[in-house]
Amino acid sequence: MTTPEPTNVPVKIRTVVTERAPSDISGLENETIDAALPGRTGSRVEIRDLSAFYGSHLAVTGVNLIVEPTEVTALIGPSGCGKSTVLRCVNGMHLNTPTGRVQGQVLIDDINILGKGVDPVLVRRNVGMVFQRPNPFPTMSIYDNVVAGLRLGRRGRRTSEYDDIVEVSLTRAGLWPEVKDRLKAAGSSLSGGQQQRLCIARALAVEPRVLLMDEPCSALDPISTLVIEDLIAELKASYTIIIVTHNMQQAARVSDTTAFLTVPGLGQAGALVEIGPTSRIFSNPNEKATEDYITGKVG
Ligand SMILES: Nc1ncnc2c1ncn2[C@@H]1O[C@H](COP(=O)(O)OP(=O)(O)OP(=O)(O)O)[C@@H](O)[C@H]1O
C-alpha cells in the first residue's frame, strides 16, 4: 500500500488539525472546552527523516518516529543528543531559535507543520508545551495564567466562557480543588508542583491535540513528581504526549513507547538508536548502546 504524500497546504492545518474553518478559529464562541473534550483523542505525530541545525551545527539527524494518539512516548538519551531539539521541532519552536533550521518533516495528522506557509500560531494552538521549570506569568493571577493563551489575539469572548475553561483546564490538570477559592491570587504564590500543574492547565486551555513535556518534573520534589506522573497517565486518553526525561524510572513508569537517542561519537550529531515498547526497551533492547545507557554504563 502506498502512503499518501503529505501536503504543506496551510488551509488544511486549519481544517484538519483544528477541525475548524479559518473563519472560526478566532474564537470558540458558544462552545466551551468542556463540550469539546469528551470522546476526543490526540493527533498522530510522525517525524520523517528529521535533521535540525543551529547555524551550520548539525545537532540531530535522521530521526524517524511515529507517536500514536493516546500514547505517551518518552525521549531518553545522554545530554546533548538532541532530545529537546527534536521536541521543539514538533511544535515548530526550533524554527524560532536564532539560526534554527530543519530538514525533513513533522507530520501532525498528515500535515507537515514544518512546511512553508504553515501558521505557527495555529501549530502552537494544537501542540502545547510544558517546560522544565514551571514558568507561570508571575504577576498574573492563577485565573489569568490559565486563559493567557486564549486571550492572545481573541476578542469578544464572554466572561462565563473563560470561567468554564478555567475550571475545566484546572480540573484536568488536577489543580482545581487546591485553587478554586483563590483564583485571583498570583500564579507565583503556588508551590513549585502546583505551578507546574498551572502551566499544564495553561497549555490545555487552548485545546491542544499534542502535549510536549520537556523534563517537566526535574525541578520538582518526589511527591509533586508523582502527582504530575499520575496526571500524565490520565491525560494520555485525550492527548498525544511526548516527554523528554533524564529519569529512567520515570520513563519506565509513564511511557508506552521509548525512543533512545545518542551521540555516536565526539563532535557528531545526535541520532535515534531505537524506538519500541517501553517494556522491551528496558528489558531487552535491540542495541548495545541502549542497554549501556539504561543500565548506567554510559551517559
Ligand atoms: N540554542 C542553541 N544554539 C546552538 N546550539 C545548541 C542550542 N541548543 C542546543 N544546541 C546544541 O544542540 C545539541 C542538542 O542539544 P539539545 O539541548 O537538544 O540536547 P538534549 O539531549 O536535550 O540535552 P540535555 O539532556 O542536556 O537537555 C547539542 O550539541 C547542543 O549543544
Automatic annotation (TrEMBL):
The keyword Transit peptide does not apply. InterPro entries: AAA+_ATPase, ABC_transporter-like_ATP-bd, ABC_transporter-like_CS, P-loop_NTPase, PstB-like. Keywords: ATP-binding, Nucleotide-binding, Translocase, Transport. Residues 45-294 form the ABC transporter domain. One of its GO terms (molecular function) is ATP binding. PROSITE patterns: ABC_TRANSPORTER_1, ABC_TRANSPORTER_2. This is Phosphate ABC transporter ATP-binding protein PstB. It comes from Fodinicola feengrottensis. The gene is pstB_2.
